[in-house]
Amino acid sequence: MGAVADAWTWLTTGANWQGESGVTARLLEHLWFSGVCLLASCLIALPLALWLGHIGRGGALAVNLSNVGRAVPTLAVLVLLTLTPLGRHGDLPTIIALVLFAVPPLLTNAYVGMREVDRSVVEAARGMGMSGGQVFRRVELPLAYPLVLIGLRSATVQVIATATLAAMAGGGGLGRIITAGFNTSDTGQVVAGALVVGALALAAEGVLVLVGRLCDPMRATRLTRSPGSSKSAGPADPAAAARAMT
Amino acid sequence: MGTGCLVANEWICGEYLRSRASELTDATLQHVWITVVSVLLGLVVAFPLALLVRARPRFAAPVLGLTTVLYAIPSLAMFSLLLPLFGLSAALVVTGLVLYSLTILVRNILAGLAAVPEEAREAARGMGYGPARLLWEVELPLALPAVLAGVRMATVSTVALTTVGALVDYGGLGTLITTGLKSYFKAQVLTASVLCVLLAVAADLLLLGLQRLLTPWTRTGSGPAGGGRGRAGGDRGRAGAGSASGAGSGARIGKEAG
Prior knowledge:
The complex is a heterodimer. By secondary structure, chain A is mainly alpha-helical.
């Protein structure tokens, strides 16, 4: 318990939040490369996965990619990139390493989400005369949406946790608070750093849950069809919304 | 090439392999034993936990929740937090890795046990099997594909995560990677990284072979029954056991990979 109390003292000391290596600056750095990495990873992984899922090809690639990704140590990629000429461009090695880390699980999840769409529904849509594009936009994408979102959320949490490793390769971010605490045997600071990373991950997940709910293409349908929500309760019933999301 | 590549600090250097062979072997051996001990201890801890959760379902939420929370702790923080308890030792790295492996192992053991057909249990009970013999001779063998799929996933991610042990100088090849960064030694970083990936692939193939050897019945039907190629990552929020998409689906894939 002593360490938690120390962490609290550390976190509530204003001086620790200020300056170039204060929590605020590190938090912003962490947010910056996690955010850029997630955006880039989504732009790379999602279109590819959704397209592969739509045409139903490349399943072995999409599924095995995340297994391959797990075997590659992010620390090794980070250090390797830092030693290349890219290392002279500030955060670039961190961002690239994190993108390489985030793309495989995103790709696999989105692909699996597309393939788990009920085939009979897709067949019915085709039978109704929908074109490939219409089936994709109006049937497959809305039905795959929850799983794609779950994949995005877990990738986000992992990217935020993994971004701490940048500190071991000389980069910035919240990991620096942890390594600084480690170097000075300040357990309170280490716990404080871990808590800030955890809080950031939780906050990011919360934001994604909210955004995901607002952008859900089948929001109205999921709400009215979920069991237990009467029609009069309408879309304002948060419990029904929660059930519909899970 | 020759000795020139060491002086020129090239990425690929045969002279490095020759002159530092013993250093590389030591680091690889340390990497291997840390991984093996961690996964074995992980299994030793995960089995009782899984059996407890199965026997007393009210423990399911706390046990699965706790292992999920442990999994979300950044490895850098985990190893730093264990420092006051263990000091700069291999035990620190092993403990951290065991805690990480629990998430995958507990869920896969549970998923494997849940997938045992009720008929098989009934038949064994009808033949007079007691609970211990039922578990050992019927349930465990039938759960083996899922358990081994979990062991494979846990082993591969443990190989990658061991590198972070470099923080306390017990990171196997990871130590070579971080010292190579400090001295800007390209050949050392690349060689250690490649060896690390090869180690993970070799461990995966070895365990796949073991899985095929131990569960010959899974190959007679249409494809492997518990091949661990379930949905990756998507099951984080759910209790893995009993979910429909194959034995491997219980565990979440993609722990921050070292």
